[in-house]
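Sync notes, pocket subgroup
Present: LS, DG
LS reminded everyone that the earlier model was apo-only. Rerun requested with adenosine-5'-diphosphate included. Inputs:
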Amino acid sequence: MYRHLKKMAVICSILLLVMSVVACSGPTEPEPPEETPPEETPPEEEPALYTPGTYQTEVPGHNAPIKLSVTFSEDEIVSIDIIEHRETEGLADPALKELPERIIQHQSLGVDTMAGATISSVMVINGVADCVDQAGGNSGELRAKAIAVQPGAKIVKTTDVVVVGGGGAGMAAAVSAVENGASVILIEKNAALGGNTLVSGGAWNAANPELSATLDAAAGLDEKLRSYLQMDASELPEDYRPTLSVLKEKITTYLEGDTSKRFDAVELHIIQTYFAGKREALDGTVIEPKFEFVEAMCSQSLDTQEWMKETVGSSFRDTLSEPIGSLWLRSNGPVNKLDDYFVKLAKYITDNGSEIMLETKGESLIVENGRVVGINCTMTDGTPVELRAEKGVVMATGGFGGNTPMVIEYNTYWPTLDPNILTTNVKTATGDGIVMGLDAGAALEGMGFAQMMPIGYADTGFLAFGGGSNVMYITQEGRRFVNEYAERDVISIGAFENGTLFYELKTLGTDPFPPSGTTEDTNVIFIAETLEEMADKLGCDADVLKEEVERYNGFVEAGHDDDFGKTSFTFKVESPYVARAMKPSIHHTMGGLKIDTSTRVLNESGQPIPGFYAAGEVTGGIHAGNRVGGNAIADIFVFGRIAGENAAKGE
Ligand code: ADP
């Protein structure tokens, strides 16, 4: 293309020259003596920029290496193919699809990275650069060719409801507002919808007794159920006590019947959520999940799945899983996270005349006469946007787990947090909605409690996915140190007290869903046929490891754990073994904007701020001090739906 441009420039200057000669020549002037024109030398052929062909490379990606190829003509980058990748579907799409198009369009590597997919973007650019060099081009020059982005003129729009954030909570709020007759504009600062919801496992806790009754029970569960029968009501706040009574009745009936299949009840979900969330801060203050929120979340969870099936056509799996710290097998998930939590919802929103604006960041709420009436935003290209909301603004910007300094600043729970601790979060989870809400007079709740994900990969901090029933956790010395089926904070504390880096050890192939860590990766995943070989790989004493595994397998057989009180065992730890190197990493921020059960944002006096709603991880207090694994998705969709409905009604 450059060669073509240069050729054009030469032709133009010849033309200009000819025209100026014509313009200057007057008709009366005597004809100049005829000269033999100098022989025209043809413009010099520019050397080719590339050796034509297709070149391939592999670059590290966000999750795993990205394999790509680039095809060149003599003058141009003709096409870029992403051959293989394991980047997060949806979130990384702009980096894998739009970005290559922009590179080709501008024949430049100086293009901006895609908002929310920075790492994948940088890696794609690096990969193309490598191919440019392989083809004999100059990637340095192409990187230096910056593409100037011009902000557009200010956009002003008016709608009924503005939803800020395109994660699960925002999507549910937008669908629900549309369903309730409102016009909606949903803004998302990234180039793709998804947020942390999309990088999470997507597991959604919803007690479903009928489905549970079709699944085989695990050793140890009866013991756990019996412990509720022993529980004294005085261990619970008054408003929870009737729930405990109903639970006891249901457990008694279950234990009298067929216990080879599983038990579940909304009441068990409520009581487990309460105890998992009741925690003491470093200064001795105690935080507890409030009954009205827990009851709303647990009792409307299954119904909200039904609503999504009916309204937008989402599909859910017909089996259950138990992500780490879920305390029970009750997580139902979507068949396809991207489609069932995002694509189908987005289609419903836009098919019904509402709008989704990507790469549009909410900056500050517009408050008039004490009412939130809109939001000022900036698009990635710098275009200012003013959105006016006649009925309400729903804040659904997620948490601040991608903002480690903010987690550390607010922390009142963890005795120490290393500033270099890794995170499972997308880097754009920076707590914007909390800052905007504070400026608009909102009160905050539970800010000091952030959840550490015990099973973060030790090298990246990414969520390792997996449950607690089929695994044993061992220290670097090979010793078991904690109840693997406990709450996430309990396991993380155990890890911090035992060298931080630990190993999850299990029998290869025993993860029901999703299969995790099946290929050896010498940094973090180790596979071995024997415990001697595994001990060698992990650098621990083989005798210690053998003794610990034998003891643990004895507990699995007995369905009872003498050492740490584990109460759910699905598999023994046997050959072939797989071990994964884990370190707790920041996962979920439980604090945020204070809301009531109608999702109205409250001020410091406990009064709702008119026109202001919030749902999802941006809100605080629902999970109190520690969140049950799988409850976040229940929370965001249940309360997102409520927020959308109430905002649409302006209530
Ligand atoms: P939740 O689980 O509560 O839905 P997520 O993290 O899944 O939270 O989604 C929150 C979404 O909000 C993310 O996609 C994030 O990029 C988006 N977001 C965060 N801050 C802003 C902002 N200032 N303006 C627009 N979108 C935002």
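DG: Residues 209-285 form one domain.
LS: Residues 116, 164-170, 187-190, 194-197, 361-362, 396-398, 428-429, 432, 616-618, 636 surround adenosine-5'-diphosphate (CB under 6 Å).
Action: DG to write up.
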